[in-house]
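User: I'm putting together a teaching handout on how sequence relates to shape, and I'd like one worked example. Could you take Glutamine--fructose-6-phosphate aminotransferase [isomerizing] from Sphingomonas sanxanigenens DSM 19645 = NX02, show the sequence you're using, and then write out its predicted structure as tokens right after it?

Assistant: Happy to. First the sequence, then the structure tokens directly below it.
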Amino acid sequence: DKGNHRHFMQKEIYEQPVVVAQTLKSYLRRLENQVAMPDMDFDLTAIHRVTIVACGTSFYAGMVAKYWFERFARIPVDLDVASEFRYRDPVLEPGGLALFISQSGETADTLAALRHCKANGQTIAVVVNVPTSSMAREADLLLPTHAGPEIGVASTKAFTCQLAVLAALAARFARVRGLMSAEDEAGIVEHLAEAPAGMNAALGHDEDIEAMAHLVAPARDVLYIGRGPDYPMALEGALKLKEISYIHAEGYAAGEMKHGPIALIDDKVPVIVLAPSGPLFDKTISNMQEVQARGGRVILISDAAGIAAAGEGCMATIEMPAVHPLIQPLVYAVPVQLLAYHVAVLKGTDVDQPRNLAKSVTVE
Ligand code: M6R
């Protein structure tokens, strides 16, 4: 049931504050100000390496998680898409945790990669949305997302719920490895708990974003750029746009622009820049200015301070609330989802059932 929404995707975008809160409920102990994890029958302190494997949007959640695991827990992370990982003969040493991320829990390549890791002595953890799925059944550690059924082929709420679980796991890892004080953990809990409100504030810009869709819909190519965790968010924004609007879109690490893609820039290629205030802001903005100097037309997604500092000369800006860096990816997911959605609606595509795509890719 779509309720009063036109498409399942739209409904699922709007459900995010609620389902992320629902998911966080099982990973945060608010009274004790601690992260909560299901019981583990292995020793998390003995894990020396994490291998993250997934496909599509779930892979981008894994890419964000790599930044977090490395930064907070100082644990080495290997990351790959399942279709490459399973055929590249990866080095899997004892003491490794293999982490699989999947909405459906049935994606063929991810499941095959899981079985390969299991056969090679890895401890298996899964972040899945379908608790009865094959991946859920075969895991040593099941970390469910509570997004509820996701019907739209384009993944939205499952993604942000995955991010919520992965952030909590990063904090737990950091804590058991002695890299995070109880006080810092309490801070993380506070910030994560603010994510639903941040996402709600982002949803408040839906009408502006809908108006902006006219700027993007006529384009043949669109670029998305960001740095740090906003790099995977750029990839995710581009994937959302291409899968439902059929416009060619690419996500790039902002610093890679001058290594090739900037050659594409002219006034017909909209560039979506994800640049929250923070240590990487100036660097991203200088890449944005290089685009503008070549006639590129920019939509800047940032917070009020970022827009005040760099918004002039942009074709449009989308203002996000100023939130803690840890929850930025959850909040910035919303505008890129909404932009893709409104462009697709303008183009009249089948938003929930885009051509050539299946909700769950159970064949190779
Ligand atoms: O069920 P999974 O999370 O394993 O699915 C992975 C991808 O097939 C999926 O995320 C796909 O990329 C979506 N259509 C993206 O919106």
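A couple of points you could highlight for students: The longest helix spans residues 157-176. The pocket of 5-amino-5-deoxy-1-O-phosphono-D-mannitol is lined by residues 55-58, 102-104, 107, 110, 153-155, 239, 243, 357, 360-361 (CB under 6 Å).
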